[in-house]
Design a protein that fits this description.
single chain, about 400 residues, alpha+beta, Peroxisomal Thiolase, Chain A, domain 1, 6-stranded mixed sheet, 4-stranded mixed sheet, 12 helices, 14 strands
């Protein structure tokens, strides 16, 4: 359990997420994230020089990835500090925030910045020499599509891991998955109510190039599909005999987010409201059995709760990274909670899945929900490639 790591109130942001091959498809994810963070810091009157370390979370290669961490630090205006690049698939944000909290807890630094980003669009294609191949034919890889479709250890695509969990636990139907997907869409609509009042609590626009001469702002999520009960019912399962249609799983996206992690004293200096205190309490991790990725969310959550010294009954807000509806159904069963009552205001199932910043946006939304509720404990948990999971518990006072 942590006792010294805090997040200043509203010292965080998430850009809107754009569906892949949308308006952010041609932006370098590192440059875009740094530019967004720099504009956000200017708007908040935060000097990047206050940060002593930067964690850059990113999973898909971009031009100059070799320099990723220190380059991002320099781009935001903190060219005197080092940066660490952390690629942990969909638990990237959770891991970055945990690493920053551990550094604060142990006195390595007082002020760290976590910057998470990814561009699923136009992913890189890598080739390796292969002199032993027929005619010296190269080995090639599409960074995103090939890895979504095949786990080199589990030997199956990601959607199959969710279907494997459904078969293992039993009792989960397509109708169940459709009902959860529709409920998550309803919850996302709550975030759009009153001219996106909830999202405007934390969302900061991303500036992108429409062409060589014209720039524009992405101010709201792009590419979220309208969802109805009738439409979900008509969609066939992606895998024959399975329970997940395209409507009950997430979509790739592009975007970024940032979170300040610091000491209690520094948090007061950077907070928008010194009466609101956000403490990072604990981190949990897990690895499920081979090709059963959706199962990792529950043991990670249980570890985080145990380390925080609380029970799930003490938690006011739960958020998840839920690439497949079965993730939430399994978690609800394991924690004995109502699947329809968590993930208020949205989740990655609906607004998309840029990987690096996905969990970060969920954690930010969870904090804002807790503030609205007058404080309390929040639990974030989510799965990640390689049948892994990561969770975080925070307390808002």
């Amino acid at each position: 359990m942590y006792s010294k790591a805090f997040i200043p109130y509203r010292a965080y942001f998430s850009s809107p997420f754009a569906r892949w091959q949308g308006c952010l498809q041609n932006e370098n994810a590192i440059e875009l994230a740094a530019a967004t963070a720099k504009r956000w810091m200017a708007a908040k009157n935060i000097d990047a020089k206050v940060f002593e370390y930067l964690f850059l979370g990113k999973t898909i290669g971009q031009l100059h990835t070799f320099y990723a961490g220190p380059w991002a630090a320099a781009l935001i205006g903190a060219d005197g500090i080092p940066g660490c690049h952390i690629p942990q698939a969909c638990s990237t944000s959770t891991t970055c925030i945990n690493q920053a909290a551990a550094g604060v807890e142990t006195g390595q630094y007082e002020n760290a910045f976590c910057l998470m980003t990814d561009r699923c669009s136009n992913g890189p294609h890598t080739i390796w020499p292969n002199s032993a191949g027929p005619g010296g034919e190269v080995i090639s890889e599409n960074w995103m599509m090939d890895n979504f479709n095949y786990d080199p250890y589990g030997k199956v695509p990601m959607i199959q891991t969710a279907e494997n969990v459904v078969k293992k636990v039993g009792g989960i139907t397509k109708e169940d998955c459709d009902a959860v997907a529709y409920r998550r869409y309803e919850q996302y609509q709550d975030a759009l109510a009153n001219e996106r009042k909830f999202q405007k609590r934390y969302m900061f626009p991303a500036e992108y190039k429409k062409n060589k001469k014209v720039t524009a702002l992405l101010e709201a999520d792009e590419g979220v599909s309208p969802t109805t009960k009738e439409g979900l019912a008509k969609l066939r399962p992606v895998i024959e005999g399975g329970v997940h249609s395209f409507g009950a799983q997430t979509h790739p996206a592009d975007g970024n987010c940032g979170v300040v992690v610091c000491t209690k004293e520094k948090a007061k200096e950077l907070s928008d409201d010194q009466n609101i205190e956000i403490q990072i309490l604990s981190y949990g991790f897990a690895r499920a059995e081979k090709a059963h990725m959706a199962m990792a969310v529950a043991p990670a959550a249980k570890m985080a709760l145990e380390k925080a010294g609380i029970d799930v009954k003490d938690v006011k807000a739960i958020k998840t990274h839920n690439p497949f509806a079965a993730n939430d159904l399994y978690l609800a069963k394991e924690l004995n909670v109502d699947v329809m009552k968590f993930n208020n205001y949205g989740s990655s199932l609906i607004y998309g899945h840029p990987q690096g910043p996905t969990a970060g946006r969920g954690i930010i939304e969870m904090i804002e929900e807790l503030v609205i509720l007058g404080g309390g404990y929040g639990l974030f948990t989510g799965c990640a490639a390689g049948d892994t999971g990561a969770a975080l518990v925070v307390k808002v006072s």
